[in-house]
Amino acid sequence: MTEAWGPDDDKPRRFAGPVRVRVPAKINLHLGVGPLRSDGFHELNTVYHAISLFDELTARRGDTLALTMEGEGAGELELGEDNLIIRAARALARKARVPAHARLHLRKAIPLAGGLAGGSADAAATLIACDLLWGTGYTKDELAEIGAELGSDVPFLLHGGTALGTGHGEAVSPILARPVTWHWVVALADGGLSTPAVYRELDRLRAAPGGPAPLESSDALMTALRQRRPEVLGAVLGNDLQAAALSLRPGLADVLKAGQAAGAVAGIVSGSGPTCVFLARDGAHAEKLAQELAASGVCRTATAARGPMPGARAV
Fold first, then answer.
1. How far is CA 262 from CA 35, 233, 287, 289, 294, in A?
2. Which end of the chain is less congested by CB atoms within 10 angstroms, N or C?
3. 124-168: per-residue pLDDT in tens?
4. 153 is a catalytic site residue
C-alpha cells in the first residue's frame, strides 16, 4: 500500500498499485524581471497561476530508474540523465537515502520550451510520485526545497493555485482571494524558445538606448484578482520577457493581434514564450476564442483552459 494526496492536501489517503500523478501547466499573470544577480539568476517578482493543461506521470516499482513517454515532444525530449524527471527522482533518492529505482512513464500535453513550465511540472510530479512509491514521507514543503534546486517553478507546481513568487521564483506565497475561476485560451506555437536565450535577449534590449522599462510591482495585479472582473484583471497582465520573446520570434505579434481581433479581454506571451495566453470573459467565450484562433493559422493549435488548478497530486 502507498499513500497519496486526496482532495485535501493535509489528509492523505491510501491505495494499492502504481502511483499516477497529474500536474498542471503554469502561466505568469505578472512577470517582473529584475537585474542579473551574482548567482546567475535574475531577481523575479511574479504571480503564478496554474491552469487546466496537464501532464501525467505514472511511477511503478522497478530494479533500476527508467523513463518512457508519449504525447507532446515524443521523439524530441531526451529521456536520459539530463531530463528533469530523472534528475528529480535521483535528487529525492539522495535526500531520502533510498535506491533510485522506478519505472516512470510520462503522458505529456504541455509543450516543450513553451513558456508553460512543462519540465518543472514534470519534476514536481516526479517528486510526488516517487515520494509515494518509495514511502519517503516528505511534506510538500520539504519536496519544494528539493524542487527549488531543480528549477525555479518546481515549488509552485507542487502547490498550484495562484501564488506570488520571489527570489528567482522559488520562494512561493499563496495569494488569498475569494474563489473565482478565470477562463483562458492557450495558443500553442510550432517549436519552442530557450528560456536562457530569452533572458539574455531581455538583458541585451535593456542595455540598448530606449530599451524596455521593467514592470512595476505586482500590487495592481493582486488587487485585480480580488475584484473578480476579467476586464480589470486583463488591464494589469504584464510580462517583462514579452519584449524579448517578440524580438526572437516576431511572428508572436501576429498571434497577439489575432487574439485581440477575435475579442479576447487581453493577451500576453506566457513566461519566456512562445505560447500566448488570452483571457476570456467566461467558459463559452473561451471556447469561441479557441476555435477562432485555431482557424486563423497564426498558431499550431489553441485550447480553452481554466484556473487556478491544484498542483501536482495523485489521481
1. 36, 18, 12, 6, 11
2. N
3. 999 999 999 999 999 999 999 999 999 989 999 999 999 999 987
4. yes
For CA atoms 90, 273, 155, 49, give the dihedral sign.
negative
Supply the Cα-derived Rg of the chain in whole angstroms. 19
Question: For residue 171, is pLDDT > 90?
Answer: no
Separation of alpha carbons 180 and 233, rounded Å: 12
pLDDT band at residue 17 using 50, 70 and 90 as cut-offs: low
Question: How does DSSP assign 177-210, residue by residue?
Answer: -----EEEEEEEPSS---HHHHHHHHHHHHHSTT
Q: Decide if 140 is catalytic.
A: no
pTM equals: 0.91
Give me 102's grid cell.
522506478
Q: Which amino acid is at 196?
A: P
Catalytic residue among 55, 122, 131, 153: 153
